[in-house]
Amino acid sequence: MHVVEGRLAVGAGPGRGAWICPREACLERALAHGRLRRALRLAPSDGELVDEGVRQAWRAAIAGHGASSA
């Protein structure tokens, strides 16, 4: 995942990024206590809204690659 001009994107690309393994447990650890938001330098005030957007983007990316989210 990465952020370019304030927009969250999945996959490699320009901008501030963070790699998350394809297991949902990894995603939840990355979201715990705002760790992923800090890594991507996202505003902490957006909290749960950002986290839910990240979850949706991550799940869509995983589904598109046919990986298991177990």
Cα separation of the termini: 19 Å
- Proportion of residues in helical segments: 40-55%
**What radius of gyration results from the CA coordinates?**
11 Å
Query: Total strand count, please?
Result: 3
Whole-number total of structural domains: 1
Q: What is the H-and-E element order?
A: EEEHHH
Q: Give the CA-based shape.
A: globular
Arithmetic mean of pLDDT? 79
Which percent range describes the beta-strand content? 5-15%
Largest sheet, in brief, is: 3 strands, antiparallel
Q: Walk across the major sheet and give the strand order.
A: 2-1-3
Low-confidence stretches: none
Q: By helix and strand content, what is the structural category?
A: alpha+beta
Query: How many helices in DSSP terms?
Result: 3
InterPro entries: YlxR-like_sf (IPR035931), YlxR_dom (IPR007393)
Organism: Acidimicrobium ferrooxidans (strain DSM 10331 / JCM 15462 / NBRC 103882 / ICP)
Protein name: YlxR domain-containing protein
Domain YlxR: 12-50
Structure in words:
The protein has 70 residues and is of the alpha+beta class. It has one domain (2-65). 46% of the residues lie in helices and 11% in strands. The chain has helices at residues 24-31, 35-39, 47-65; strands at residues 2-4, 7-9, 16-17. The protein has a 3-stranded antiparallel β-sheet with strand order 2-1-3, with no helix packed on it. A hairpin with a 2-residue loop joins β1 (2-4) and β2. The longest helix is centred in the last third of the chain and has 19 residues, at 47-65. The mean pLDDT is 79.
